[in-house]
Amino acid sequence: MVELIKDIILKSISRRSVLNGIGLDEMDDGATIPLGDYEIVLSMDGHTVDPIFFPGGDIGRLAAAGTINDLAVMGARPLAIMDSIVVEEGFLLSDLEKIIKSMNETVEEVGAAIIHGDFKVMPKGKIDKIVISTAGVGLAERGKVLKDSNLKQGDKVIVTGFVGDHGIALASVREGIEFEADIKSDVAPVWDVVEAALRVGGVHAAKDPTRGGLSMALNEMASKSGLSIWIKEKDIPIREEVKAASEVLGLNPLEVTCEGIAVLIVEGSVAEEVLEAIKKTKHGKHASIIGEVKKEPMRKVVLETVVGGKKLLEPPLGEPTPRVC
Predict the structure, then answer these.
(1) 79 to each of 40, 76, 99, 214, 255, how far by Cα in Å?
(2) Does domain 2-141 have CATH number 3.30.1330.10?
(3) H/E/C letters for each residue in the chain?
(4) CA–CA–CA angle 178, 251, 227 (5° rounding)
(5) Which is it for the CA torsion 270, 276, 281, 282, positive or negative?
(6) What's the alpha-carbon Rg for the chain, to the nearest Å?
(7) Which one, 19, 174, 298, 318, has least CB within 10 Å?
(8) φ and ψ at 218, to 5 degrees?
(9) Model confidence at 43, in pLDDT bands (50, 70, 90)?
């Protein structure tokens, strides 16, 4: 996917940013337009999740939270989102209403608004049920936007909640496998968590571990910064039921999509204070410091296993569970 974006899409576009703004070349979670003392932060995403209703959420909550979270990890307060909804002919109006209400409830959680949209119907069989694209607008003080490349040696790595819930919940439903303990998606807006961290200060970078999960997010940050990220397996918060389900499904919970957590890179001296602030928020109760930024090996992620070994945590090849976002 990354190669396709770089080799086909980016090469075909001549102006990829505005003056002094973050644009396509950075391949970050959003883009920026500097305006006076502030930066307008923009992000957009398409959502094709299957099934559209799943344990813990639906495509409406996923679409709203996904874009809100992209703004949040750029350090921007989410202000508004816009949506484009395309449905298949015959799509149930009752389902559409549920999805729209879910989007609205999610946006209201962060005090944002849905300010514009588009709606279209495709002939039967030309689209699979429903596709939602969302664009978001946020605001950050100029010079305080978080870039996922801004890691510094000695920084600590914080993950703000349980890893793997969303991807494993979706995979379980698709495979028709029921487990003794219910596994639900973690889909949620994470602005409260990021805002709490920003109030403490010392946050250098952030990312939401969606496609490719925690492994992909960490590898992207290590690669862009030219530094190394070392994480401890024992400190990564993963539910026991998710671990068990992952083994049954043949999936690595570190490689599946998460939709309600963020990865924060924080100055080492304030990491414990940031963690304490995060744990007081609604969506940060299970946050954990999982590692540290080091110099070597450059652009690599090292996993220190529970048995005391060390191995490279490689980025996943492709998406282990397609259509989860």
Answers:
(1) 10, 9, 20, 27, 31
(2) yes
(3) CHHHHHHHHHHHCCCCCCCCCCCHHHCCCCEEEEECCEEEEEEEEEECCCCCEECCEEHHHHHHHHHHHHHHCCCCEEEEEEEEEEEECCCCHHHHHHHHHHHHHHHHHCCCEEEEEEEEEECCCCCCCEEEEEEEEEEEECCCCCCCCCCCCCCEEEECCCCCHHHHHHHHHHHCCCCCCCCCCCCCCCHHHHHHHHHHCCEEEEECCCCCHHHHHHHHHHHHHCCEEEEEHHHCCCCHHHHHHHHHHCCCCCCCCCCCCCEEEECHHHHHHHHHHHHCCCCCCCCEEEEEEECCCCCCEEEECCCCCEEECCCCCCCCCCCCC
(4) 140
(5) positive
(6) 19
(7) 19
(8) -65, -40
(9) very high
Q: What is the dihedral of CA 31, 33, 38, 43, to 10 degrees?
A: -30
Residue 178: band (very low, low, confident or very high) from pLDDT cuts 50, 70, 90 = confident
Task: Please determine, looking at this structure, whether the domain spanning 156-312 carries the CATH number 3.90.1300.10.
Answer: no
d(CA 31, CA 53): 30
Give backbone dihedrals phi and psi of 97, rounded to 5 degrees, phi first: -65, -40
**Left (φ > 0), alpha (ψ -120 to 50) or beta: where does 75 sit?**
left
User: 102: closest CA among 136, 71, 62, 133?
Assistant: 62
291 - beta bridge partners? 157, 231
pLDDT over 80 at 69, yes or no: yes
As a whole number, mean pLDDT of residues 213-242 equals: 98
Domain ranges, ordered by start, for the chain:
2-141, 156-312
Phi, psi torsion values for 127, nearest 5 degrees: -155, 150
